[in-house]
Amino acid sequence: MTDGIPPRDPSGAHSSAGLPAPAFATTGALAAVDERSGAVDPKRRHVLAWGLWDWGSASFNAVITTFVFTVYLTSDSFGDETAVSAQLGVAMTIAGVLVALLAPVTGQRSDRGGRRKFWLAVNTYIVVLLSAAMFFVAPDPGYLWLGLFLLAAGTIFFEFASVNYNAMIWQVSTPKTIGKVSGFGWGMGYVGGIVLLLIVYFGFIEPIGGTALFGVPSTDGLPIRVTVLVSAIWFGLFALPVLLSVPEYRSPKAAGSLAEQEGLGAPGAVPAKRIGFFASYGVLLRDIRTLFRESRQTVYFLIASAVFRDGLTGVFTFGGVLAAGSFGFTPGQVIIFAIAANIVAGASTILVGLLDDKFGAKPVIITSLVGLLVCAAFVFLLHDGGQTVFWTFGLALCAFVGPAQSASRSFLARRIPEGRDGEIFGLYATTGKAATFLSPLMFTVFIGVGAAVSGPDASVQYWGILGIALVLLAGLLLMIPVRSARR
Predict the structure, then answer these.
(1) Degrees (nearest 5) of the Cα angle 259, 263, 266?
(2) What is the longest distance spanned by two Cα atoms in the chain?
(3) What is the rounded CA–CA span in Å between residue 215 and residue 212?
(4) What whole-number distance in Å separates Cα of residue 483 and Cα of residue 300?
(5) Contacts of 263 (CB under 8 A, 6+ apart)
(6) Spatial CA neighbour of 182 closest among 419, 395, 352, 423
(7) pLDDT, tens digit, 9 for 90 and up, residues 4-27
C-alpha cells in the first residue's frame, strides 16, 4: 500500500499533496501559525532550552530509576535480593500498564487545548515532588512499598511529561537538523547525568575527605536519601528554561481563529471541540483508523518502536540492579560505572545524530539493536567473569542505547506532515507506553525461569538480561520490514 502521509521536504517545505480532508484539522493556516511559532526557523536558544529539559531529566533517569534509588531499594536493607528484585519488576509492570491506559489521551488533550507546555510543566513538577518524597524511604523492609509506590508513580508522570516534550521537537528543529537536534537532546541528558552523578558521588556517597557536603551523616541511608533530594532540585531547576523560553504550541482551534483574524482564509481549519476524558479514547481510535488508511508504514513503525524502545528502557532501568546484584558492584562502584556509561552514551548519541541526518534513521536503529543483542548475550554467557565482563559489555550496551532512542524519534518526526506533530507523537507515546510493561515483566519472568533451572538457592538475577534481550529481538524483527520515509 502506498504511504499516504507525505514526508517533510528536506528543503524545509512541506508537501500536502494527497492528504484527505483533515481528520486532524491540518491546514495551510496551521502551517502559517507553526512558522510564526518557530517551527521553520527555530532559535538556537530554543534548542538549548529544549535540550536542558533532557539535561535535568537525567536526575530521574540516572539517579532514580537506574543507578542509585533502584539499587538502594533492591539492597538487603529491604529484604531478600531476589524477592525484592521481583517486587520491583511487579511495581514497574503495574506502572507500565497504567501508562498504557492513561497516556493515550494526555498528549491528545494537551494538543487540542493548546496547552502542551502547561502540561509539560505540571507533569514535570509532579515528578520533582515524588522524587523529593523518596527522601523519606528509610533502609527498612517496612518502607519498601513506599519506595516502590513513589518509583512507579514517578515513572508514570515522567512518561506523561515526555509525551509533551517529544512533541515539541519541530518547534526547535528543521527537516535538515532533526537528527542532530534529537541527538543533542538525548546527549544532553547523558551529559547531565554525568555531572549530577559526579556531584552526588563525591558529595554524599563517597565524599572527598570523608565528610559529606552539609555534614550529612553516613547512617540510616542518608547519603542515598539526600542524593534523591538533590536530584529533585536538579530536575526542577533545569526544566525551567524550556518552559520560559520556547513558545507555547497553538492548538488547531487557536490556529483557525488566528487565520480568520488575519484574512488567511481557513476553510477546514476545524476548531478543536472540548471533549470528555473517556470520549478522548473514541477520538484516538478514529485517528488510528485514519492513520492506518493513510500510512500503514507509520503504523508498523509505531508498533515496532513500541517494543524495542521498551527494551532500551529496560537496559538502563535494570542495569544498575544487575551490576550490584549479579556482578558484586558496591553502591560507589555502581555510580562510577554510571558516570562511564553516561560518557559513552552521550558521546555516541551526539555523534551518531550527525550520521542520522546523513544516512537516515533506520540504519542507525537496526545497527544499534543488533549491537545491543550481541552485548546482552555476552553479559549473560560470560557472567562468571565478574566485573570485568560487565564493565566491557555493559559500556558497549550503553553506546548503542542512546543512538537507537534518538534515531527512533527522528525517524517518526520525518514522516509527520505539517500540523499533525502532536497527534502523531501522541500515538508514538501511546504505542510506546502500551508496551512499557514488557521489559519489567520479562525481566521478572526470566528470573523465575533461572530459579527453576538453577534451583531456589542459586543467584539467578542475571537471567533477567535474557528477558530484556528477548524484547529487543522482537522489536528488531518488527523493525526490519518497515520502510523509511521517502525524502
Answers:
(1) 45
(2) 75
(3) 5
(4) 9
(5) none
(6) 352
(7) 433 343 333 333 333 333 333 333
Give the separation between CA 171 and CA 371, rounded to whole angstroms: 32
**Cα distance from N-terminal residue to C-terminal residue, the chain:** 18
Q: Which amino acid is at 81?
A: E
Distance CA 25, CA 468 (A): 39
Residue type, position 357, single letter: D
DSSP conformational letter for 272: P
Angle at 185 between CA 415 and CA 63, to 5 degrees: 130
Fold for the domain defined by 42-242+291-479: Growth Hormone; Chain: A; (1.20.1250)
Residue written as cell 528554561? 241
CA 189: distance to chain centroid? Answer: 10
pTM of the model: 0.73
What is the domain partition of the chain in residue ranges?
42-242+291-479
CA atoms within 13 Å, Cβ hemisphere of 471: 28
**Which residues 6+ apart lie within 8 Å of 209 measured at CB?**
none
- State how far the Cα of 449 lies from the Cα of 455, in Å rounded to an integer: 10
Which residues lie below 8 Å from residue 364, measured CB to CB, with a gap of 6+? Answer: 352, 355, 356, 403, 404, 406, 407
- Smallest Cα–Cα separation from 243: which of 414, 156, 125? 125
Q: How far is CA 481 from CA 242, 297, 305, 369, 376, in A?
A: 37, 9, 12, 14, 23
In the predicted model, is pLDDT for residue 322 greater than 60?
A: yes
Helix/strand/coil for 152: helix
The pLDDT score that the predictor gives to residue 228 is 95
**CA 404, chain centre distance (Å):** 11
pLDDT bracket for residue 92 (50, 70, 90) = confident
Helix (H, G, I), strand (E, B) or coil at 185: helix
- Tell me which amino acid residue 374 is: V
CB 364 within 8 A of CB 352: yes
Query: Which secondary-structure segment (H or E) carries 475?
Result: helix 464-479
The conformational region for residue 12 under phi > 0 = left, psi -120 to 50 = alpha, else beta, is: left
Q: Which three cell numbers stand for residue 332?
A: 560507589
Return the DSSP state at 9. Answer: P
